[in-house]
Amino acid sequence: MNDWPSLNAGESDFDFWSEEYSRYGKCGLDYFRTPDRYFTRAIIENGAIDITKVLADKGILADNDRTYSVQQLFQAIEDRGLNRPQIE
């Protein structure tokens, strides 16, 4: 679970994983076959990128009392030399 943490303060990683699989993993069920394969592939794709650290290095921390703009998130990620993410 440490490989894919929830970025919502107070939300358990397990709840986050369940929601992510329900929203995205089931679409790839024919390919991945099981939730374990889906998350394993996601972790492999994530590789050495620690998004929590990338954001924390720019002062962006999980906090229910503070909000950050999408532009702040993009900037922190792009400053690290990473591609702009898709945010829904």
UniProtKB/TrEMBL annotation:
GO annotations of cellular component type: extracellular region
InterPro entries named in the record: RNase_T2-like (IPR001568), RNase_T2-like_sf (IPR036430)
A GO molecular-function annotation: ribonuclease T2 activity
GO biological process: RNA catabolic process
SUPFAM superfamilies xrefs: Ribonuclease Rh-like
Record-linked PANTHER family: RIBONUCLEASE T2
Family per similarity comment: Belongs to the RNase T2 family.
Protein name per UniProt: S-RNase
